[in-house]
UniProtKB/TrEMBL annotation:
Keywords: Cell membrane, Membrane, Transmembrane, Transmembrane helix, Transport. PANTHER family: AUXIN EFFLUX CARRIER FAMILY PROTEIN (PTHR36838), SLR1864 PROTEIN (PTHR36838:SF1). InterPro entries: Mem_transp_PIN-like, Na+/solute_symporter_sf. It comes from the Bacteria. The chain crosses the membrane at residues 20-46, 58-80, 86-106, 118-137, 149-168, 180-201, 207-226, 238-260. The lineage of its organism: Bacteria, Bacillati, Actinomycetota, Actinomycetes, Micrococcales. It is a multi-pass membrane protein. This is Transporter. It comes from Mobilicoccus caccae. Its main location: membrane.
């Protein structure tokens, strides 16, 4: 319901109403990709002496953050509707990374092509394409249909919070192993720092930079565990990393949100 129903409605509604300029949107995309590549490289270097499956798992945990059922509500609460619009853009980017690079890291034989196929099957992708085409040709949907989609979109945030609670409740014991500590530290400290650098490098400031930094500070995505189990990776490390990262992110985000105005100007 979340991934195939309410979230596509939220993406469509946000795209139709967004005030994000093409320049800012492009800079966010470039900065996010630069941040992701650098984070993956650093993680791979940090884990050089560990088994390949563990290295892959730690690297995936480092670059794939929870920009859906954690990132969207936090962006709305911290940055308002304008911040939510940018968070939706970053969420879609994270889905692309998750379903292309993620399976590749976890050992999928399908590689990037298989991941891209998965992304093209997601309704959220086509919701953004449809909204983009409507805006490009200055068209609108009939009022009742547009209002219905907006209402569905409003249900997305409460639903993803419930999903997060259920996922956290079914998680097992946290194992404090070196790979888990590395994954959590890289996600909590290194990735936000890279976001600041990448954002400034491409000329982001204000709300755009704040949205990127906030997205980078999100905990490790729960879907990493799904991918790890699917492709036979180090699922124990991933499971512990997800839970530890999620709990640790709460105090980190409290501090970060209070500091964002001074960081981003």
């Amino acid at each position: 319901m979340g991934l195939y129903g309410f979230t596509p409605a939220l993406a469509f509604d946000s795209m139709m109403k967004t005030q994000i300029s093409a320049q800012v949107g492009t800079r966010i995309v470039i900065a996010y990709l630069v941040m992701t590549v650098l984070a993956a490289a650093i993680s791979w270097l940090v884990t050089l002496r560990w088994p390949v499956s563990t290295r892959r798992s730690v690297t995936a945990c480092t670059i794939i953050g929870n920009n859906g059922n954690f990132g969207l509500p936090i962006a709305l609460l911290a940055l308002g509707d304008a911040g939510l619009e940018m968070a939706v853009v970053i969420f879609v980017l994270s889905l692309v990374v998750m379903f292309t690079v993620g399976p590749l890291l976890f050992g999928s034989s399908g590689g990037i092509v298989g991941g891209l196929t998965t992304v093209l099957r997601l309704p959220v992708t086509w919701a953004l394409v449809a909204a983009g085409l409507l805006r490009a040709f200055d068209l609108r949907l009939p009022g009742g249909l547009e209002s219905g989609i907006a209402l569905l979109g409003q249900a997305a945030i409460p639903l993803v919070l419930i999903q997060l609670g259920v996922q956290m409740g079914t998680s097992g014991k946290i194992h404090r192993t070196p790979p888990v500590i590395a994954a959590v530290a890289l996600r909590a400290v290194v990735v936000p720092a890279l976001a600041v650098g990448a954002g400034l490098l491409v000329g982001l400031d204000g709300l755009g930079l704040a949205s990127l930094i906030l997205a980078a500070a999100m905990p490790i995505a729960v879907n990493n565990l799904m991918l790890a189990r699917e492709y036979g990776a180090d699922s124990d490390t991933v499971a512990s990393s997800v839970v530890a990262s999620t709990f640790l992110s709460i105090p980190i985000l409290v501090v970060l949100i209070s500091l964002l105005p001074s960081i981003t100007g």
